[in-house]
Structures are given as structure tokens and as C-alpha cells.
Amino acid sequence: MSILKRTPLHDLHQELGAKLVDFAGWDMPVQYAGIMAEHKACREACALFDVSHMGQVELRGENVAEKLEALAPQALTTLPEGKARYAFFTNDQGGVLDDLIISNAGDHVFVVVNASMRDQDLAHMRAHLDGVEVAEITDHALIALQGPKAGDVLGGHCSKAATLRFMETTMADIAGHWCRISRLGYTGEDGFEIAVPEGGAEALARLFLDHPDCAPAGLGARDSLRMEAGLCLYGSDLDQTTTPIEADLVWAIQKRRREDGGFPGDKIIMEQITNGTSRKLVGIRPDGRAPARGGTEILDMDGHAIGIITSGGFGPTVGAPVAMGYVSSNVAKVGTPVQLRIRGKEHAAKVAEMPFVPQNYKR
Amino acid sequence: MSTYYSEEHEWLTIEGDIATLGITAHAAEQLGEVVFVEQKDEGDTFAKTDEIGVIESVKAASEIYAPVDGEIVEVNGALEGNPAALNDDPEGEAWIYKIKIADAAQLEELMDLDGYKKLIG
Asked: Nearest residue on chain B to A313, judged by CA atoms?
């Protein structure tokens, strides 16, 4: 066993009574007061998450956006300065290598990748982005403020934050700390991700937590929030064997890229956009109360295997279990009755619309 | 009336040849917020270490393993509508089954409160 890595907020997590777990090699808070309360805080007020384990990368060089377009099916050369975009790296089979956020930061491109994929993504970019300096940022924490009150919590310390719309990014001073603020997140709520120099991270987190509407939240709530919001988790709902079209992420591939290709797996992905796929990621709502976890088999009403749950659990805001999984496309229609085999017993469920709760972004 | 504890964090309170079975406060604390309980039916028989139910928390699913051989004589049906009771009062109102013990000698393999306290540190 190797020693777990710690974020600049580790001492604060311990002081706040967090339950810490190994997440992708990092000692991370899974919960503080309880997942339900933290989930609710995010939907109704503001939750503070430490997401410093995610990889922050700065790309510098000539035509970085153009070179990135050779790795990802997003329109990046036309991404305006100060804008962020949800993106993914694909492989030659059209599978997803990782999903990430790419921002045009003016003099460089700022990229945030999954903690578990950090090393792989860095190697991938270094191998393929010719003439581009790929710099991993290890001296900044990343704090996410998420929820309908996130604007109030941050706005009190940074007037510039209020001017940002969903998927916009800027540098700004927050209480003396020079930060990158991006209005985005992965909970389905309005909110911000703030990259702050590590020396100021704890002070800034404490400042936010002093606000009566802001509570710390862990990875447990982060997972239930993103599931309810219908957002894919890499490694569960997305991997090298799933294409973005199967995962219902065609919205994240801009028109020019759909038509012109020029990214790994483009022929397969473009063919799937035209002709559809044999399986599709859908939302699933169990009729009863038993949660269906990842790996649960999905059957049709005759008992034939038609797919598998990739993420599932209890949705605190929905007040019932929610799940997502891949099913044969002919049974992917919302409302289709299916069965879930949980511990050897069949449970009734239906294909359901995602997100399970309405998204609440500041567009 | 005496209470025994298992390594799987269950308690067992004996009255005559009937025992009330539940999970310990320590187990409930570790599980986190319970959202669903799957229980066996009245009349089901089981052997020691058999899976006799599942508790699902927001985090994960955890099996309940039989601490002794026996038969379920009563199921706490209130848990179906109120699984959160397992967090509120796991060693009281939120008992899971009443069971008839098949072999009282098996109780000797369980722990008393002091033994259990040592186990959980």
C-alpha cells in the first residue's frame, strides 16, 4: 500500500470531522455530517467540495486548440477566451479515454481532468500535442462551491464572480487570493470551481464556510448529486469501450466536428451519429425502494438480458432510487418497463428521463 | 434476559428460546444513512453465516449474516416504510427479526458487551 496523497485542505477535513477514504490514491472526505444532509445543502443552499485531487493542467504553445482538436471531438479553435467546454479524449475505436473541462484562458489553455486519469491524460497530451508545453499544476487547490446560494457565498468576496455565466471562466481576486474562477461544476446546480494557490486554500475555504448557507460536502454527496443530474462518471458510465454516442453525449460534439471529423475514432462516431448505436445509456427508475447499484443486470419483461446498470443508488432529492445504465437501443425509450436483477431477484423498473432533477445552471 | 453480540455487528437479545436480532449502533454509524432494508419472510429458516437480509445505505449495500441457526418468527415490518429508524434507534425500535434459536449452544460463540466493545475499539 502506498501512502495516500493529501490535498491542501486535508487538515481542515480532519478538523471538520470528515470520514476520509482512499479515492484514486488520495485521502479524501467521503462525508462530514452525512451524505443526505450534504446533498440537500447543495440542492438548497451551497456545498463546498474539495476537488483538488482532480488534475489541473496548463497548455501553452502555438495553435494549442487546433492540436487538441486532433484528440477530442469538440470545437476548440472557436472557443472564445473566457469560455469553458465539456470535452473528452477519444481513442481510435471511438471509445472515451477520459472526460474533462477545457477552458480558453487567453494566453494558455486550462484543462481539468479526473483524478484517476491524471497520469494517463498527462502522458496522452505530452505524446500527442507536438510543440505544446504540458504543465501539471500541483501548487493550487481546487474548491467547488455548488448550489443555488453559491453566487451569494462567493459574491460577498468577489464582485466579478456575479458577472460570470454558466461555462465562463476568469482570473479574479478573492479576499487577497488570486484565483481562477469558472462557473461550472458537476452537481446539476449553479456554482463555481475555484483554483486557488495552495497556501491560501484553507483560509479561503474557511471564509466560504463562515457563510451560514455554506456547508462542507464530500465525495458521497458529489456522487449522488451527479447521478441525479444525469452526469456520467468516468470509469463507471464511460470508458474506453463506450462511445460518446452510446453515452448520449452527442450534444457535447459541436456541429463542425460532427460533420468534418478529424479526431480519433471519427469514422465510427460519425457513422453512429447517422445510423444510431445498438446500445444506449439511459436513466432507470426502480419502481420499488431497493437501490440498483453499478453492475446490476437489466432484463426485459421476458427475462432476457438487455443491459447493465453502470451507476445507481439512492437519490436524496428524488427521494427514491435512481440509476443509469446501457440497454439495447430498441428498449431505450422513456417509460419502457424493464426488470433489474438485484441479489438474484427481479425488481420492476422503468427507463426514465435524465436528468432526474432539473438542472439549475446560470445561463 | 441477556444480550449477545456477533463479529458481524449484530445484537441478539434472548428471552426464553426467542431472540430479537438487530444491528449495533456502531454498525449503523458505519453504514451511514439507511435507505432500504431487504428482509426475509416469517417462517424462513437459516443456518449460521447465511445471508438473512440486506441493508442499503446511501453509500453501499451491506449483508446481514445469521449469527446462529434458527427460524424467523417475526419480521419488523416498520423498517420497510421507515428504514431510517436503523440510524435513529438500531438497538431498540429498529430491531430486524425475532428468531427462534435452533441450538442455544451456539450463543457461547458470540460476545458479551465487553467483548464487543473491545472488538470495535
From this structure: B58
Total H helices, total E strands in chain B:
4, 9
Residue B22 has pLDDT above 80, yes or no: yes
Tell whether A199 lies on the interface with B, counting CB pairs under 8 A: no
A283-307 residue pLDDT tens: 999 999 999 999 999 999 999 999 9
Q: Which of B54, B58, B80 sits opposite A314 (nearest CB)?
A: B58
Model pTM score? 0.94
List C-alpha distances in Å: A12 to A17, A317, B54.
9, 28, 35
Asked whether the CA dihedral A25, A26, A27, A29 is positive or negative, the reply is negative
Taking the C-alpha atoms of residue B68 and residue A184, their distance in angstroms, rounded to an integer, is 53
Instruction: Looking at chain A, list the stretches that DSSP marks H as alpha helix, in order from N- to C-terminal side.
Output: 10-15, 35-44, 64-68, 118-128, 150-155, 198-209, 219-228, 255-260, 266-275
Residue numbers in A near B83 (CB within 8 A): 289
The mean predicted confidence, pLDDT, of chain B is 95
The string of pLDDT tens digits covering residues A38-94 is: 999 999 999 999 999 999 999 999 999 999 999 999 999 999 999 999 999 999 999
pLDDT at B17: 87
pLDDT digits (tens, 9 = 90+) for A182-194: 999 999 999 999 9
Cα separation, B44 vs B52, in Å, equals 9
Q: In 10 A of CB B76, how many CB atoms?
A: 20
Rg over alpha carbons for chain B, rounded to the nearest Å, is 13
State residue A35 phi and psi, 5-degree precision. -60, -40
Position A1 pLDDT exceeds 70 = no
Query: In the numeric block, which cell numbers belong to residue B53?
Result: 437480509
User: Predicted ipTM?
Assistant: 0.85
**A16 Cβ under 8 Å from any chain B Cβ:** no
Sign of CA dihedral A246, A250, A252, A253: positive
Exposed, middle or buried, A131 (CB in 10 Å: 0-12/13-18/19+)? exposed
Amino acid letter for position A137: I
* CA distance linking residue A118 with residue A134, whole number of Å: 12
With beta carbons less than 8 A apart as the criterion, state whether A225 and A68 touch.
no
Q: Do A35 and B80 touch (CB under 8 A)?
A: no
Say yes or no for a CB contact (<8 Å) between A31 and B32.
Answer: yes
Q: Which of A36, A290, A291 sits opposite B33 (nearest CB)?
A: A36
Q: How far is A290 from chain B (nearest CA, A)?
A: 6
Say how far apart CA A201 and CA A145 lie, in whole Å. Answer: 13
CA atoms within 13 A on the CB side of A353: 3
